[in-house]
Design a protein that fits this description.
Radius of gyration: 14 Å
Number of strands: 5
CATH architecture: 2-Layer Sandwich
Order of helices and strands: EEHHEHEHEH
Structural class: alpha/beta
Number of helices: 5
Distance between the termini: 41 Å
Length: about 130
């Protein structure tokens, strides 16, 4: 099991990207501020920003976490997120993709590594003028 915990949301203004990382065995309390953290960082970016979420080492403590993650996805849509890339392990892919698709009307592009996600982000953003 992954012992180190990380919950972070960081805006890269130069690239107009929002990076979110969830790592470790996280409880509802660990991620409670995630929607507000995302809003604060997303507001630093231009509309249509690209979101990269790394959940490859995320282990939810309970089903309650999905409610907060869904709220976070809704916040991303409200803040005018463009494309989203989700870095996943096989186990984390299905639930989050189902929630983003059915509850918020978008599907994340799925990648298996940070390097793959960065390449995909460059490809997506190469013809976008912000």
């Amino acid at each position: 099991m992954i012992k180190e915990k990380e919950v972070s949301v960081k805006a890269n203004i130069k690239k107009n990207r929002l990076y979110t990382t969830l790592k470790g065995f996280l409880t509802k309390e660990d991620i409670l501020t995630l929607p507000d953290d995302l809003r604060r960082e997303a507001n630093k970016l231009k509309p249509g920003y690209l979101a990269i979420s790394d959940v490859s080492a995320y282990v939810p403590a309970s089903e309650d976490n999905l409610e907060i993650l869904s709220k976070t996805m809704g916040t991303a849509v409200e803040t005018k997120m463009g494309a989203t890339i989700r870095i996943v392990s096989d186990a984390s892919e299905t639930d989050l993709q189902q929630v983003s698709s059915s509850n918020h009307g978008y599907k994340a592009i799925i990648c298996g590594s940070k390097a793959e996600a960065e390449k995909m982000a460059e490809k997506i953003q190469q013809n976008i003028k912000y």
